[in-house]
Structure prediction request, 161 residues.
Amino acid sequence: MRRGDREIKEFSEIIRVMEQCDVCRLALNNDGYPYILPLNFGMQVEDGRVVLYFHGAAEGTKYKLIEKDNRAAFEMDCSHKLVMQQTGDVCSCTMEYQSVMGKGRIEMVSEERKQEALGILMKHYHKEECSFSGAVAMHTTVFRLVVSELTGKAHKKRMET
Prediction:
């Protein structure tokens, strides 16, 4: 990371940032070009590792790409704020943000674990317990990204001296 002063080093703080994000951009390999998908997600820490859960229709390009190569990268960000500063005739601006990036391998979630995985997804957006239709779940594919590398970064202009 070029700007080490912006690195989020504490695992718990990285998790806190991820909990604030509402979209995860997943990048898959597509014959030399990344195939990027903005997805809703759920997350859980399992044995000290972050596991991200995703869902989608039963078929599509992403599944063909995952079948060919299950390696993936991801990015999520939040807390955006434009900060403008006027000094005399000169105007400068910067953007405050928090972001997390990483990579890992995708695994398809079995039918037996699908309800549990969908519950993890729902919990990210609905803090209270929420039920969902079993009929819809039957036609939904669920997969997870077991994260092997994870970094966090934040820029808060008001905190700089």
Q: What stands out?
A: The first strand starts at residue 7 and ends at 8. DSSP finds four helices and eight strands in the chain. Helices lie at 11-20, 61-68, 111-125, 134-138. The longest helix spans residues 111-125.
